[in-house]
Amino acid sequence: MTTKIFRRLALGFAVLAALTAPAQADEPGGGGTKAPVPVTGEQVYKIVCAACHMQDAKGGSGAATIPALAGNPKLGVAAYPITIVVRGKGAMPSFADTLKPAQIAGVVAYVRTHFGNDFAKPVTEEEVARMMPKTISTPSH
What we know:
The chain has one domain (3-20, 37-131): Orthogonal Bundle (Cytochrome Bc1 Complex, Chain D, domain 2), CATH 1.10.760. Helix 2 (41-53) crosses helix 4 (101-112) and helix 4 (101-112) crosses helix 5 (125-131). The protein is mainly α and 141 residues long. The N and C termini lie far apart (48 Å). Helices cover 42% and strands 0% of the residues.
């Protein structure tokens, strides 16, 4: 991988680790800080997605090809990007355990309406929740 892509990937994984780390109690007396949790689709994109897909959503190439989201006709049907974010595909990991349905809906809607994409049909949290993996409980003995 090129150094630039490697650095962006490392940054992205560091951000993901910070977002998924268990909350720790602040020390008495204050002074503790927590990483900001992305709320809007734009924030999720900038903090999570841009590490690989780049700030301009044009993707990248080198040792690995990262698909461009900019001007991507595959985003026209909302189920496609939702499925990719929820389940992962190829080198793209699943974010079902990392992001909440509202965050996934927000980032998919953001990408579908920015970067030269004009797919304005809203993406709902309910659509995403229906596509999330179901938790399988195992009976205890």
